[in-house]
Design brief:
Layout: H1 3-11, E1 18-19, E2 27-28, E3 33-37, E4 40-44, E5 52-59, H2 62-69, H3 101-110, E6 119-124, E7 131-137, E8 142-146, E9 159-163
Antiparallel strand pairs: 1-5, 2-3, 3-4, 4-5, 5-9, 6-7, 7-8, 8-9
């Protein structure tokens, strides 16, 4: 397993609502998104005092972390070249080796049980209606974000959000 996957495996086990200060050192990208480096991010709840972490994310750049995890995203819609990639392997979470749009959509659709949620949505900026990303809301609190409003079968995610398990 890569160092990135090992780091991610440890982070996604943390409890939701843990103070940001209890995570590895990070620096702010916004009031909500904090970078740990190497494509890993902490996402906090802006409505709660104390920078409480609700999710961990991976993104191919700081730009995509802001566009995917920061709401509202106020930046330019011209995306730069990826800084980190490809996406980390999520096989440690039982996910397929490929995170392509077609593979993830099919995998999430086949999941069974109470937490089976497959919803493919487009996310848009409210202020001007600009397209931000396409999301596949999967089971177990994982959301995969793709750059295109019409993802091709082999497109890989530009960002992935892992909602942390409830801990309050």
């Amino acid at each position: 397993m890569s160092k990135l996957a090992l780091d991610l495996a440890a982070l996604v086990k943390r409890q939701r609502w843990s103070p940001r200060s209890t995570f590895p050192p990070s620096r702010p990208l916004s009031d909500v998104v904090f970078t740990l480096g190497d494509g890993l991010f902490l996402i906090t709840n802006p409505l709660e005092p104390g920078e409480l972490v609700v999710a961990v994310g991976w993104a191919q750049s700081d730009y995509w972390a802001g566009r995917a995890f920061d709401n509202p995203f106020r930046g330019d819609l011209t995306s730069p070249a990826p800084k980190w990639g490809p996406p980390p392997s999520l096989t440690f979470l039982g996910r397929p080796g490929s995170l392509s749009f077609a593979t993830i959509r099919s995998y999430e659709r086949e999941r069974t049980g109470r937490d089976n949620v497959i919803l493919v949505t487009g996310d848009y900026r409210h202020s001007d209606g600009a397209f931000l990303h396409c999301s596949v809301n999967g089971s177990d609190g994982i959301t995969y974000m793709y750059a295109s409003n019409r993802p091709k079968a082999l497109d890989e995610p530009v960002a992935i959000e892992f909602r942390l398990p409830e801990g309050r």
